[in-house]
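Team,

Forwarding the record for the chain on the shared tracking sheet. I've put the sequence and predicted structure together so nobody has to dig through attachments.
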Amino acid sequence: MVKEIESNARTRMEKAISDLLHAMASIRTGRASVSLLDNVRVDYYGTPTPLIQMATLHVPEPAMITAQPWDNSQIGAIEKAIRSADLGLNPMNDGKLIRIPIPPLNEERRRDLVKHLHQVTEEHRVAIRNIRRDANEAIKKLLKDKTISEDEDHRAHDEVQKMTDGEMAKLEQAAKAKEKEILELK
């Protein structure tokens, strides 16, 4: 029973870390990456559709992303969605291909991105703490039901705390690396 609780908590914490890494990939750093456009939704005949499902995305050079729509009639909608995605990008099209130049980040925009990164990181810290709380409550319930001894209860709580500390360290390390990447001048 205790092993199941620990295993479940570990799985959920690892998912929280991978979600953080995914969220951090969409934060701009001054160099082009197709993951910047992960959260862009295009109004495709009334349905918000992810850009990646409507166009082929490429990074032909470090400061440029190109999007080649599969349906050329959607170029205007794709351009509008990229502009309104609050990424600070200004796409241009030639009728067949959308070029999205990645402008260098100014100091103010870098600070805003770091602030956003801190918000995202804190949300994931809270998620990990909530997972820890759920695991600890499940362990306390086992003790209350006299399914486990007090020694097993203490050991299980220690194990959950060690797991939480390890995942928090991974989270902090990833956040620091991303912050350094954002603040780095090219």
